[in-house]
Amino acid sequence: xxxxxxxxxxxxxxxxxxxxxxxxxxxxxxxxxxxxxxxxxxxxxxxxxxxxxxxxxxxxxxxxxxxxxxxxxxxxxxxxxxxxxxxxxxxxxxxxxxxxxxxxxxxxxxxxxxxxxxxxxxxxxxxxxxxxxxxxxxxxxxxxxxxxxxxxxxxxxxxxxxxxxxxxxx
Amino acid sequence: xxxxxxxxxxxxxxxxxxxxxxxxxxxxxxxxxxxxxxxxxxxxxxxxxxxxxxxxxxxxxxxxxxxxxxxxxxxxxxxxxxxxxxxxxxxxxxxxxxxxxxxxxxxxxxxxxxxxxxxxxxxxxxxxxxxxxxxxxxxxxxxxxxxxxxxxxxxxxxxxxxxxxxxxxxxxxxxxxxxxxxxxxxxxxxxxxxxxxxxxxxxxxxxxxxxxxxx
Lengths: 170, 215
Fold this sequence. Notes:
Structural class of chain B: mainly alpha
Mean pLDDT of chain B: 89
Helix content of chain B: over 70%
Low-confidence stretches of chain A: none
Largest sheet of chain B: none
Strand content of chain B: under 5%
Oligomer: heterodimer
């Protein structure tokens, strides 16, 4: 189990996302690959696989960061192994990993731009479509870049608020 | 299998381009990132905000959008770059922002007392930076920086989208000729994996090597 997870994490973390996107699309039959629904699904399946591999590392580090004393205290008041995991280690881990978690979400949000290369009609694809039809290159990117920035920062702001709400008391 | 062997020389050419792009980007971003990162940590206020904005802006935009912006957008300002240099500069600008943050984090993690002690024995700023802070900051800098290098190699796959025949585009051209996508993509994935995994291992070994230092 441990080896299988490690192999998955290492493979996905060390291969370009673009290649994973193409790889998943290529597993579809050509007729089905052309349909927009298939493409949208194909573009959304590598991203969880990709983000998941990063989150595995985040959670592992989070579990390691739970102070040893807390676990010992749980043992001292007679909690079983599962109770310690559920009531002591997981809640503490969740608070510890929140900042890394929000970073992972932000980069996932930026990675959605890759879906444009397999013709999913998202923001970057739309930008290129307008560009090829109107030849107004600079206007398109000047509009699209702030759109990404604004959404990214809105996301970041929301996540920071959640972080502050759950911050580990000092 | 024979197909994979036949296409190997072509993929090898692509791999060389991938490595070439990655190496240029790593060097450019390291040089710029070190200077700007130190300036961010120790520089005057009028330097702080421009660098802060540069770093936040570039890290907030998808890399793909950045590459398209440099390649398709800059010619409007009469800056005509070949697709190779457009991609290299876009990647380098993006990575510089990350290196800045890594440098800042590493340098600021050194306790204030170290700087004060250096000042007390009469070291100049350059001496304090080189002889006191840099050696200690190095071990906090290397592991995340190697992660950034892995990210660069992965990000370099995006240069295929502006028509540079790197490993990614070489794979696609072979597929375009042979119509056997899956084995070729897997082969390509393994080639990327071989480069990046060895880098990741180096990073992990360095972390273990530096673990003896107690805070």
